[in-house]
Structure formats: C-alpha cells, structure tokens
Design brief:
Blueprint: H1 3-6, H2 24-33, H3 38-45, H4 49-60, H5 68-71, H6 75-86, H7 94-97, H8 101-112, H9 120-123, H10 127-138, H11 146-149, H12 153-162
Amino acid sequence: MNLYNLHTNPEELHGFDIVPYKRPKLAYEIALGNPKMRQKLEPTIMKDSYLAYVYVRDILKRRWPEAEPYIMKRPYWAYSYAEHVLERPWPEAEPYIMTDLESIYFYALHVLKHPWPEAEPYIMKDPRYAYWYDRDILKRPWLEAEPYIKKDPYSWKNYKIWFKL
C-alpha cells in the first residue's frame, strides 16, 4: 500500500522528497496517482524492467526510448515491449530475448511471425518448447530437434500425432 497516495498533502510526509527517487515501485505508485510528478519519477521507474514496461503500457502508451536499455535486459519484458509497444521486431533486444525459452517462443510467434533460426539452437534443447515452436512456427517436422523432443513423452506423443508420424 502506498501511504503517500492516501495522504491529502503527501509532500509533508517524511521522506517524500527522497524515497520515491530511490525505489522504483514507490515511484511508479506515486506516478499513477499524481500525474504532475510523473516526469520527475520516470528516471527511477525505468530502472525496474517490469515497472518500466507497465508504465509504458498503461500510462505513456507510447515508445519510451530512455527506458529501453533497462527493459531489454529482462527477456520477457523485452518481448512484451516489442509486441505491445513497438509492434515490430526489436533487434537490439534479441540477444537478451534469446536467453529465455518462453520469450524466444512468444517473440517468434507473435512478433517475428516466422521462424527465428538464430534462436533455434537454444529452443530445440527443451522438449516442450521445441515441440511448440515446431508446431506453431515451423509447421513441419523438425528433424534436428527430434532427439530432444523424444526426451519428453508428452511432447513426443503430441509431436507424432500433430505431424502424423
């Protein structure tokens, strides 16, 4: 709970002039309830990848280039920013996105909307993500990934059914 938002004159509270500039969550909560403070609090908010993404999505509703170096460091928020804010691929963030299997899968499926060969050596090693990537993005049997998919009975069974093997 943010007590600063409940107080009729939060500027009078102890720490109001210091704490929000050190704590991204508090800065975000104050910015939600106090539009006049937003610009001053943005440098603090952007330091948290998740809060920066949510701030862009829910408040700014536009690209925020100053926060992008922070957002891109967390793979899932980088993928989400590319899909929901940029609405296009984000090549600068791809090395970060490539470090997380879920983000690879969703980025290829929803942002690139085609196979992502550079990420395939990573995603093929996980049976379920390899199967889902194959089924939803490659849309053909992925022979190189089959040894990995076979390691998970659920994925292998569904792979064989899906591709009628």
